[in-house]
Specification:
Order of helices and strands: HHEHEHEEHEEEEHEE
Number of helices: 6
Helix content: 25-40%
Strand order of the largest sheet: 3-2-1-4-5-10-9
CATH architecture of one domain: 3-Layer(aba) Sandwich
Shape: globular
CATH superfamily of one domain: Vaccinia Virus protein VP39
């Protein structure tokens, strides 16, 4: 007999459930990635920001508190409700505009509308490589010329890489949640249409999670958005300087 396929938990239901049970599933304080990103936004005069996968708004409130107008998207209704409440409590309703949206669908915004796009650990969820490429293509569309795109994802240096139940590509189910892990080569392949400015590594949380933090600038749209062939080599960094693995975060052995 053929072995039955494992039942995959519905990810939207999983996130709605978690966000409904906890007001601060990822903590109350802004992420370190958001703090670093905020400084870059200041240096580049960013005023309008699209946050893709805002969760419960811990980073959203940080950005709006520094006078950035933030349009915050998440497909979890519970998350969007939490962001609305935090915006009201912080007196930031004029600057925070939360919306429910599934990023596998086109962004509901006009071309060249935002100074920057920001996404903290959304692209490493239950999204295929083709769907991630679509999200980045949509970000490119809504960014103003020369706009910034910043995102963080779980890296192949993470202790949970290739752990859990394999769902295909580099997606693994860990504790009921799907995680898509990134290599340096994957980041490079997905940067089509952008100038890849910087890729750093960062640790977050008590696990800890090992993250790639990616900074890109919008460039000219390519003739084709098709992903280039995969030439996976984890010894190469995404900026095409094949000189060994990226340096570990400070203090890590």
């Amino acid at each position: 007999m053929d072995r039955a396929e494992p039942v995959k938990p519905d990810q939207q239901e999983q996130w709605d459930s978690q966000f409904s049970r906890s007001d601060a599933f990822f903590g109350e304080q802004p992420s370190e990635f958001a703090r670093v990103s905020l400084e870059l936004f200041r240096q580049n005069g960013v005023r309008s920001l699209l946050e893709v996968g805002c969760g419960q708004g811990r980073d959203t409130v940080l950005f709006a508190g520094q006078a950035l107008a933030v349009t915050a998207l998440d497909y979890s209704e519970a998350a969007v409700a939490a962001v609305r409440k935090k915006a009201a409590d912080a007196g930031l309703l004029a600057l925070i505009h939360p919306h429910s949206h599934d990023v596998r669908e086109a962004l509901p915004f006009a071309d060249e509308q935002f100074d920057a796009c920001y996404s903290h650990m959304l692209l490493c969820m239950e999204l295929s490589n083709a769907e991630i490429a679509f999200v980045l293509r949509e970000m490119h569309r809504v960014l103003k010329p020369g706009g910034l795109a910043l995102y963080s994802v779980r890296s192949n240096f993470d202790r949970h890489y290739r752990a859990g139940t394999h769902w295909g590509e580099d997606i693994y189910e860990i504790g009921g949640f799907a995680v898509q892990f990134f290599t340096a080569e994957k980041i490079r392949r997905l940067s089509r249409g952008y100038e890849l400015l910087q890729v750093n590594r960062m640790e977050e949380g008590s696990l800890p999670r090992d993250l790639f933090c990616v900074t890109m600038r919008k460039g000219a749209a390519p003739q084709t958005w098709d992903l280039p062939p995969c030439n996976e080599d984890t010894s190469c960094d995404p900026l095409n300087r094949c000189k060994g693995s990226p340096e570990p975060p400070p203090g890590r052995t």
